[in-house]
Amino acid sequence: MKTELINPTEYNEILHQAISHIHTTRTQVAKQINSAVTSVYWVLGKLLFEKQLSEGYGSAVVKQLSIDLKKEFPDMGLSPRNLWDMKRFYERYYQADEKLRQAVAVLPWGHNLLLLNKVESLKMVEFYANETINKNWSRALLLNAIKMDTYRHVQNQIATHNFAETLPQISAEYANEVFKNSYNLGFLGVTEPLKEQELEKRLTEKIRTFVLELGKSFSFIGNQYRLEYNQKEYFVDMLFFHRGLQSLVVIELKIGSFKPEYVGKMNFYLTLLDKLEKGDHENPSIGIILCADKDHLDVEIALQDIAKPIGVAEYQLLLPKDELQTLVLNELNKEKS
């Protein structure tokens, strides 16, 4: 029987879709488990709240309750401290907006404890909860985001892209939601200056974590992706496809501060991608220049007469690593004690 060979590009798309479906299913199952656990904790917290137990006269009651519940459910983590945390959890959210309650309901209990202990505003809690859900943040990454005051950084961001001028209105609004002004690359564990090739190598090795930081609907196509035109070869650092935008997305990595000439090079790459790779049904390719630092006025001028959709974003490596690790471990240990 003759075996037909599939086009490598088509196969890669099948592979990436299969991987995406598996990750999505696993995430949905995890959310269902978290939701069931949180539902039990919510009911117990409500019970303690309605019985008006406090850590003064109610301590003996909660201590005995913990002993008896552990006999019946030894694997549920029903220590006195955890029972009091359940009561605090209920007190904080029982009058909160339904969207917020739904967001915290699917988070692991450890994440909820961080939000209880580290975040004061319910508006900020909703932001961090949604970011955790959308990007599948671990407890350590959530703690990093809180310590870096990511919420306020996002509120103060100034747009550094030309999407409104280069994309249809609906696509421009969507792209503005998809792409951020700053990306947290702390998961790379960088402790010393890197060359651009090394940064790209580390991101490629941890590509799933990087895709989660980028956001939903990204599929990784490849790094040092080869483009050939006019008998010359060109290589883009990292190439993705965004299913929602139906666009190829190229990310160019720069170790130093933003320079205006980066825009010209990106514009050239996007022209080649649209000419050589873009499907007839797909939208224009989008470029993101990821650099260590940027001046929004320089970016604004550099993008002024550019016809291709380009954004400029900063990355944060969370240096130095030793201090970061000590900070994270101390905070996590506090939660366990």
Automatic annotation (TrEMBL):
GO molecular function terms listed in the Swiss-Prot or TrEMBL record: nucleic acid binding
Domain YhcG PDDEXK nuclease positions: 177-325
Segments forming domain YhcG N-terminal: 20-152
Signal peptide: none
Pfam families: DUF1016_N, YhcG_C
InterPro entries to which the protein is assigned, alphabetical: PD-DEXK-like_domain (IPR053148), tRNA_endonuc-like_dom_sf (IPR011856), YhcG_C (IPR009362), YhcG_N (IPR041527)
UniProt protein name: DUF1016 domain-containing protein
